[in-house]
Design brief:
Length: about 140
């Protein structure tokens, strides 16, 4: 017996796949400790790059790289103030709700997520993980 796939089924599957891709991209924005720390600082209000480097103890280039990712993901917004760029959360209330929900899930799962062999605290960095494509560094492209 063969089942006929209707155009509606195909469209529905494409919409679902697109929504899953968008959700995965959103969560990728939060998947790095430094980006998450930046988001947490931005919950308190606007910050310049220099403010964030002071708070986090990270290099300016590192903070700028993570802010560019968060900006591309639509998580942060930027405005120019004189010669500085001032960053804020694009949707602070929704971001706070998401982080609060994540904290609830973490409280319910305990250490399970940190013990996960694939993504836990002792896993290989994403660019060294065997199931991912290695990141291309700037030096390798020169």
């Amino acid at each position: 017996m063969t089942m006929k796939t209707t155009e509606s089924d195909t469209t529905s599957a494409a919409v679902e796949a697109s929504a899953l891709t968008a959700a995965a991209c959103l969560f990728h924005g939060f998947s790095d400790r430094s980006r998450l720390a930046i988001v947490q600082h931005l919950l308190a209000g606007e910050h310049r790059v220099v403010d964030l480097t002071g708070h986090l103890g990270l290099a300016q280039s590192t903070v700028s790289k993570h802010l560019a990712c968060l900006l591309d993901c639509g998580i942060v917004a930027v405005r120019v103030q004189g010669r500085a760029s001032v960053y804020s959360l694009a949707h602070p209330e929704a971001t706070l709700e998401l982080l609060t929900a994540a904290e609830r899930v973490l409280a319910l799962t305990g250490d399970a997520v940190t013990l996960c062999a694939t993504y836990g605290a002792t896993h290989q960095p994403l660019d060294e993980h065997p199931n991912t494509t290695p990141a291309v560094s700037e030096e390798s492209t020169r």
